[in-house]
Every structure is written in structure tokens, then in C-alpha cells.
Design a protein that fits this description.
By secondary structure, this protein is α/β, with parallel strands linked by helices. It has ten helices and six strands. It folds into two domains: about 1-135, Rossmann fold (3-Layer(aba) Sandwich), CATH 3.40.50; about 140-195, Winged helix-like DNA-binding domain superfamily/Winged helix DNA-binding domain (Arc Repressor Mutant, subunit A, Orthogonal Bundle). Helix content is about 55%, strand content about 15%. The protein has a six-stranded parallel beta sheet, with helices on both faces.
Length: about 200
Amino acid sequence: MRIVLAEDQAMVRGALAALLGLEPDIEVLAAVGDGEAAWEAVQAHTPDLLLSDIEMPGLSGLDLAARIHEAKLDVKVVIVTTFARSGYLRRALDAGVRGYLLKDAPSEQLAESLRVVQRGGRAIDPQLALAAWEAEDPLTERERQVLRLAGEGLSSGDIASRLSLSQGTVRNYLSEAIGKLGVGNRIEASRLARQRGWL
């Protein structure tokens, strides 16, 4: 099994690469620290599997999964993360992710989960899978994009130019998101959506 590993924390990346390197049937082709480098490594090496964190500089693990899915690359994606958020899992599954594991799981489970995915199965943390069916994400993809940028501190005008929308349209998306989440403003909406894993 040939793997590209994407993890922005150097110590965790090194530990994962070392752990996987002990397995006789696993070869780590590249271990990189951000989403863009991971995308380049996937294209350069065409691995069997991408093992990726969710939150990284540049592209997130979910962005990478979506790119791989859209490009119809024969690369299975497994997310390994500290974020036990059901919203992330639902979006990961929508992006074609085959595995979703938590970093606090026992290390021996990781290699076995990768083998399950390599054989065509799914490896999803069971508690997270249960929670995912209970928490419905009310946001549209465009509302998510606008809220993500608002959470980064961009003004409505900046968001409009970044997404090629009018300022009025941006305000409408923000207003819809604020209303759906039942909060008072765009910052609270962004914070709540991020906590629930919807961003």
C-alpha cells in the first residue's frame, strides 16, 4: 500500500510516518505539511491512499478529498483528525472520503483501518458516525464559503470581490446563515458553524 501523508504538525507527521513505516505492507511515499504540497505529492506519486489531517494551511483535508474526487483520481482518502465534529464527517463523506479516524484512537487501529479502506471498505469512527446522523448541517455551500471568509475578518466588499458576487448577494448569504444558526451576527455565525464542523 503506497501512501502520501499530509499533516501540518511536524512532530505528529513524523510519528505517523514512523509508525506506518513499521508496517511491512505500507510504504510512505511522501510526508508533507500543507494542503498544496499534498495535492502536488498526490499528482506526482499517484499513491493508493492519501492520509490527511483536516485543518492545514492552504487546502484542508476536505478540499483535497474534493479535488481528488472531482479529478477522478484512483486515490482513496482517509482523514485522521483531532476534530470529533459530525459536520466534518458528513462533508468528508460527501467529498468521497473512505475513512475518518480520530488521532486519539489506539495506533494499531490506524494500519488496520488503512487496510480496510485499501480493500474497498470504509473505516469510520463509530461514535462519530452515530453523531453525524443526528446533526443536520443547515448551510448551503455558498453560505459556508461566505461565512468562512467573514470569519477570517473580510468585509462584505472583500468577500464579494473574492467570490465574484455583488455585495448585496453576500449580505443576503450572511443574513440567511445568521438566521439559520440563530445567532446575532456574522462572527457568532462563523464561530458556531466552525465548532459544529460545518466550515
